[in-house]
Amino acid sequence: LANIITRKVTKEGWDNTLLHLNLKGHVRYYALAVLIPFVQGLLTFITMTLVYGRWDFSEMTGRVSISDYIGNRLMLFAIGPLFAWNTIGEEFGWRAYMNQKMEPLLGTTGTIIAGGILWGVWHAPLTIEGHNFGKDYWGYPWLGIVTMSVWCIAMGVFLMWLTKKTGSVFPAVIGHYMFNESQGALANLLYQGSIPENAYLGMIADVFEYVPMIVVAAVFMIMLFHDNSRTPKTA
Asked: How many CB atoms within 10 Å of residue 53?
């Protein structure tokens, strides 16, 4: 809505809305939009289980068979791009508008940091309600808002890279949806039941949860800088 209203108020028109699939030559980026969030989630929950839990495959497979689990994950890969409509609102605002306006002013790094902070603060009402981290942690709710902003900065790197590589908002829409859905899908197998019930997770767990995310963000940040360095400068 902010994207649409701002365009109407400023009379800037509808150029660069990025609302086209632009599949030709870019299918691999759509595939990465599905796979990278899943791989990151896998690394996250492996890290969490190693730190807080135990590897008990008999207990894991007692909840869901490996074949059923693989089938469910393949189904997630198949339907993810179709159900990603519920993240198009955010991405139409962040990647398809905010990033385009910020980058000429703040540069790539500044856009990722400032945009991520704005995105994180935008989630503040949900964070205060305990949606992401609960309410029983030191520093509530401000630490939760800061943590959410860090999460948004890190995830924003990959989504920005996808958008710049394809000239379309839809890979970021799919990537955003897969980030959301992969967490729960992997928690089913690795997280619930494999961590002792009396283990305190809360905000402490998020320190470990963010390690794979920061590594992924660093990789794609380097790729963004590499792409920028290859872009001819205009006078």
From this structure: 17
Record the tokens describing residue 108, joined without a space.
């790539």
Q: What is the CA radius of gyration of the chain?
A: 19
With 0-12 CB in 10 A as exposed, 13-18 as middle and 19+ as buried, what is 202? Answer: middle
Q: Which two tokens stand for residue 227?
A: 């792409």
Question: Which tokens go with 47?
Answer: 């890290």
Amino acid at 187: A
What digits encode the pLDDT tens for the residues 133-192? Answer: 888 888 899 988 998 999 999 999 999 999 999 999 999 999 999 988 876 656 555 544
Euclidean distance between CA atoms 84 and 212, whole angstroms: 23
Report the predicted TM-score, pTM, of the whole model to 2 decimal places.
Answer: 0.87
H runs (alpha helix) in the chain = 2-10, 27-52, 57-63, 66-83, 88-93, 99-122, 124-128, 142-166, 170-186, 202-230
DSSP conformation letters of 138-188: TTTTHHHHHHHHHHHHHHHHHHHHHHHHHS-SHHHHHHHHHHHHHHHHHII
Q: Alpha-carbon distance 191 to 94, whole Å?
A: 31
